[in-house]
Amino acid sequence: MGPALLPDNLARLRKPEALKVVAEGRTATQMPAFGAQLGKDEIAALVDWIYSPVEPPPRWTDDDIRASRIQHVDPATLSDTPVFDADPMNLFLVVEGGDHHVSVLDGDKLEPIHRFQSRFALHGGPKFAANGRYVFFGSRDGWITKFDLWNLKVVAEVRAGINTRNVAASPDGKHVAVANYLPNSLVLLDGDLNLVKTLAATDRDGKKSSRVSAVYDATPRQSFIAALKDVPEVWEISYTKAVEDIPTGFIHDYAQKEGSFIPGYLNPRRTILDEVLDDFFFTQDYAELMGASREGVGQVVNLDIRRKIANLPLDGMPHLGSGITWEWIDAGGKPRTVMASTNLKAGEVTVIDMKTWEVIKRIPTRGPGFFLRSHANSRYAFVDSMMSPQAKHILQVIDKQTLEVVREIVGEPGKTLAHVEFTRDGRYALASLWEDEGAVIVYDAQTLEEVKRLPMRKPVGKYNVWNKITREEGTSH
Question: How far apart are CA 12 and CA 355, in angstroms?
């Protein structure tokens, strides 16, 4: 469920800090504290073992990827229209971590219509393609699954790595990118999950290797954007052939192509930074990304000129990957596009002006939170405090104009209430009772009253087709 504990993956975690992590747990992860079960000598022995080189080192080659591929269904046998009556654009996928299944919900009737077995520990959220027909899942142990949502069938699977962060898909479903921690690679697949190529995640000089911390689709740019966890670089990988070549080394004349170039198609165009990025958020036109490291260093990167253009005044550990945007009217009546993000270490939601990059407000919350969600048709944004032992059962509701918490939805103390996702029209907000014997709880998005609950096995995430494929401003992309 976590990254492979190998010395190469722990270069940024010193042994004294590792001792503390084993004893006290790790913020914003599933790593619990073991200080009550293990003595200091036992913890020290474990850390020494974890930091010892593994011989032989684990490998996962292109041949391994190709050999792992499984074709579950012949695509020629699949229907070109949905096999159910529900609106295919208002379906939800609910990832149930309790027993590793995915449920398909009818977003109009708010009832399940299908449930299927998934791979272990899905991570990074499913990615939709081909108008929501195909869904691509990634598991922590490297398996990529292609699911036909119209036919409710798993089509194909392939193991793209040993330890995987997330997956991204082009809107037409013809290109898939996989970010790996182990091996240090970005794997590119076609829409049928056949290997196209593997990009070794190294710096520009090829000397330092890195885990890939995240990869996302940038639809308007027809490219994937990837951040490296151990190297201060952001990569842009174009999946359109109508893209200029990439210069490498010294170029005498760009127009005459005098110098070294590589094809722009499916090769990394590098942006060199001073600080690494663990996570990031795109502006609406995808020309810039707002990124932050695990240490809380925030920066704005322009993807066209390929350099940092501004600092972000962030504290703690912002979770920009789950940020949202909306139009906010300031005191002078002027509309301003703002972005808001939770924080994994501090009890606040940070609201940032996306033109000036200044912090408009820090909204105090009950505790560190993971998810922030809204919808263009809702005046409210929902935020959890799931990193707080005392307040993880409380959802707070923020008025997007006053920037104040106006309501609290209180669940059962000791149980986690988190991850809101809206229906296509924004009428209902669905939250997760994040327990093994949990539920998806449906709230009226206007009155904020509970409408119904659907029993689920630890529903760790919910994803609405329409909101995802239209890049709705109130959900993560």
Answer: 33
Q: How far apart are CA 301 and CA 281, in angstroms?
A: 10
CA atoms within 13 A on the CB side of 71: 9
- Domain 322-477, what fold? Methylamine Dehydrogenase; Chain H (2.130.10)
Residue 463, judged by CB atoms within 10 A of its CB (0-12, 13-18, 19+), counts as: buried
- Asked if 334 and 317 touch (Cβ cutoff 8 Å), the reply is no
Sign of CA dihedral 210, 215, 219, 222: positive
Name the strands in the sheet holding 450-456, side by side, starting at the edge strand that comes first in the sequence: 417-422, 428-433, 438-444, 450-456
Type of residue found at 365: T
* β-bridge partners, 329: 335
Assess contact for 93 and 463: CB atoms under 8 A. yes
Long-range contacts of 334-340, Cβ-Cβ distance < 8 Å, separation of 24 or more = 336/360, 337/284, 339/281, 339/290, 340/372, 340/381
**374 touches 397 (CB < 8 A):** no
Q: Which distant-in-sequence residues (6+ apart) come within 8 Å of 398 by Cβ?
A: 349, 363, 380, 381, 382, 383, 404, 405, 406
* Cβ-proximal residues to 42 (8 Å cutoff; 6+ apart), any chain: none
Count CA atoms closer than 13 A to 312's CA, side-chain side.
33
Assess contact for 444 and 103: CB atoms under 8 A.
Answer: no
Q: What pLDDT sits at residue 252?
A: 54
Q: How far apart are the first and last CA of the chain?
A: 23
| All structural domains of the chain with their residue ranges | 1-57, 322-477
CA-to-CA distance for 278 and 295, rounded, in angstroms?
A: 9
pLDDT tens by residue, 242-256: 999 888 866 655 565
| CATH code reported for the domain at 1-57 | 1.10.760.10
Residues shown for the chain: 477
Q: What is the mean pLDDT of residues 294-313?
A: 86
Query: How far is the CA of 363 from the CAs of 126, 291, 319, 400, in angstroms?
Result: 30, 20, 15, 11
Would you state the pLDDT for residue 154? 98
